[in-house]
Structures are given as C-alpha cells and as structure tokens.
Amino acid sequence: MQTAEDRLRALFVKGLAGDAPAYRAFLEQLTRHLRGYLRRRIPTLRDDVEDLVQEILLAVHNARHTYREGEPLTAWVHAIARYKLTDFFRGRARREALHDPLDDHDDLFAASDDEPAEARRDIGKLLEHLPDKQRLPIQHVKLEGLSVAETAQLTGLSESAVKVGVHRGLKALALRIKGLA
Q1: How far is CA 107 from CA 99, 102, 103, 113, in A?
Q2: Which domains does the chain have, with CATH numbers?
C-alpha cells in the first residue's frame, strides 16, 4: 500500500519533469489533504478554508523549484501550509485590531442619544400639570434624590405632606399617562 508521501512525491516529481496530467493529479490530491488539515485547524472559519487552500497551492506551485528530491515532500508542503496558516492568523488579528470599534469615527456621528434629554423634557411636561404640593416632592425626592426630610425643609411642607405629595402625584401621573385624567 502506497503512503500519501510516496503517492504525492511520485506525482510531484513527474510534474516537475513536465508531465502535466501528473502535476494536475498532484494538485487535486494535495487539495483534499489541505482541506482536511485546515478544517481541523480552523473549524469555525469554514469560509476561509477554500481561500487558504488556494493560497497554499499557489505557494507550493511558486516554490516548486526549491523542493529537493531526496527530502520528504509532505514535510516541505507542511512547512509551506503552516507558514500560510500562521500568516492568515496574523492578518486576521491585524484586521481585527485595526477595526477597533473604539476607533470607528463613522459611528460617532451615526446617531445621537437624545433619549435622556427627551425623557427629562417629557417628565417636565407631565409634572407641569401637577399642583406644587405634588410636583415639588416628586421633583426633589424622586428625580433629584433628596431625602423626605431635606425636601420638607426645602419646600416648607411637613415630612408627611411630602410623602403624601409623592404618592398622590405619582398616582395622578399614572392616570394622566393612561389617558384617564
């Protein structure tokens, strides 16, 4: 039984001597071996396998004059394939590094985030419809984060009036949003 080394080397040497069908057969058999090799090494990048196979075949063809007939052909091809695979990983890492989402200046002006400003404006419009004894407690306690005691001191209302104002004001806002008020 002939090994892949013997079979490929025989076809390659015949191809080097000018036997075009033998060289074509060598490339076809080598293609199958390369696909298997690459699919095991980059299983998640299936789309890149064929491109890489073609690059390796081209490199083997262009470097065919460097092969020494007494040396193992598979080791020579493996060195070329490994180099191309390493080159592929370097290029991919470089592309990913170059396409840093932090450096994508087009995204900076693609859309603005006016949502917080719009929300503040909408809340302000809703609060305008409430009496001061409900609006001010909601504004100070819920929106500004002041305590009930601080709000009472600031507005002149009792702490209990601040709590009632927040409760009733939120209830009135809920009804207004639902369209019932």
Answers
A1: 12, 9, 9, 12
A2: 4-101 (1.10.1740.10), 115-178 (1.10.10.10)
The type of residue at 83 is Y
Q: State the Cα–Cα distance between residues 13 and 69, nearest whole angstrom.
A: 8
Amino acid at 48: D
Rounded Cα distance, 116 and 13, in Å: 72
SS3 156: coil
> Is the separation of the CB atoms in 87 and 66 below 8 Å?
no
For the stretch 30-65, pLDDT in tens is 999 999 999 998 988 888 999 999 999 999 999 999
- CB neighbours of 104 closer than 8 A, spacing ≥ 6? none
**pLDDT, tens digit, 9 for 90 and up, residues 90-140:** 988 877 766 555 555 555 555 556 666 777 788 888 888 889 999 999 988
CA 125 to chain centre: 40
